[in-house]
Amino acid sequence: MASHKVNACCQALIEKNLTISFAESASAGKMCYEFSTVFNSGKILIGGIVSYHSSMKEDLLHIPWGTIEKYSAESAEVTKLMAQNFCRYISSDICVALTGLTTPGGSESEEKPVGTIFIHIIIAEKEIARHFEFEGNPESIINQAIDAVAELILEEI
Length: 157
Known about the structure:
By secondary structure, the chain is α/β, with parallel strands linked by helices. The protein has helices spanning about 5-15, 30-35, 55-60, 65-70, 75-90, 140-155, and strands spanning about 20-25, 45-50, 95-100, 115-125, 125-135.
């Protein structure tokens, strides 16, 4: 069941007749799923893509070769490109991209610990980029990130 924040965000999108789509990495489709569980979600949810592995980001989301190597798959730069490139092919009013670290490994470092999440949202001509550090287990980190996305959208629309 969707959180209160996701519910509120979806209701606002429905009222304003706005659609939404997702390009997800760390959340592996859970964000799209959460938005799909809200009553009347068919009025707003266009869909999403899960690009967990770098090859998906490069092959399907057209992240230029070498970009991930330079910045890492979990970075503001890659998240921004995921949102921008996905938005070109999907007809939706809002496009959300999310990457991050929910488990040890990957590009984890002192500057980028587990719990680091990058979000990039495109709404009309405006782009919102945020970097969060959440605490908890992988599921908790993802749930906090999904709520953060809902809050950011609510603030903007």
